[in-house]
TrEMBL record:
Matches recorded under Gene3D superfamilies: P-loop containing nucleotide triphosphate hydrolases
Designated name of the protein: Nicotinamide riboside kinase
UniProt KW keywords: Kinase, Transferase
Pfam families: AAA_28
Molecular function GO labels: kinase activity
The NadR/Ttd14 AAA domain, residue ranges: 24-201
Residue intervals passing through the bilayer: none
Organismal lineage: Bacteria, Bacillati, Actinomycetota, Actinomycetes, Micrococcales
Length: 223
């Protein structure tokens, strides 16, 4: 099956086939570096291409919702003018987050277009577990030792975006370290990753070029 045939028959594929064939593009980075904005913008751009691309989906960061829930359990409110009061994180929390993030990703891959954009993933959950619980805590990795193939990681550079407190963030001083951890982990795993730089428009344009290159490579492989 060549690329044209694949795309023409995409909507007739089973959910299982779509899940296996979808190219997964994951946006990762430290806190307040524009990950969600870039993920949404990419999904919107590819939807605008129409046809099978009109159902391009993006997956939100489950860990954020989970954090808000933990704060509520502690009886704390969210205040944009104050720094986040760290929840009582335990290894099991990161296992839960990783598993649910992956479930959401797989569900979207099985129902969307040939490309899926993810605002973080279970690998990022492993990095956050290291941030809060140290190198010895590996619950997220143990819960998901192997992840589905990723077509591309886009790494948002903390130097391009000013830190904005939203009531749950607490890691402005950790942003350079977190950025380096992502670089190190992606390099160690041999994942295809690329920094994206500049303002919102520049990042989007650069990312589209990178994603289109991945799509073109698939076409060449299938011809």
């Amino acid at each position: 099956m060549n690329d044209v045939d694949l795309y023409e028959s995409w909507e007739r594929l089973s959910p299982e086939a779509r899940e296996a064939l979808t190219l997964r593009v994951v946006v990762v980075g430290a806190e307040s570096t524009g990950k969600t904005t870039l993920t949404r913008d990419l999904a919107q751009h590819y939807r605008a291409r129409g046809g099978i691309w009109s159902n391009t989906l993006w997956v939100s960061e489950f860990g954020r919702d989970y954090t808000v829930g933990k704060i509520a359990e502690l009886g704390l409110g969210l205040d944009d003018d104050s720094e986040f009061r760290s929840a009582d994180w335990a290894p099991k929390d990161f296992a839960v987050i990783a598993l649910e993030q992956q479930r959401l990703e797989n569900a979207a891959a099985s129902t969307g277009s040939p490309v899926l954009f993810c605002d973080t993933d279970a690998l990022a959950t492993q990095i956050w577990e290291r941030r809060y619980l140290g190198n010895e805590s590996t619950a997220a990795r143990d819960a998901l030792p192997v992840l589905p193939a990723r077509a591309l990681y886009l790494l948002t550079d903390h130097r391009d975006v000013a830190f904005t407190q939203d009531g749950i963030r607490d890691g402005e001083q950790f942003r350079p370290t977190m950025t380096q951890w992502f670089v190190d982990e992606l390099t160690l795993l041999g994942e295809r990753g690329q920094f994206v730089h500049g303002n919102r428009e520049d990042r989007l344009a650069e990312s589209i070029g990178l994603v289109d290159a991945v799509l073109a490579e698939r076409s060449a492989q299938l011809d």
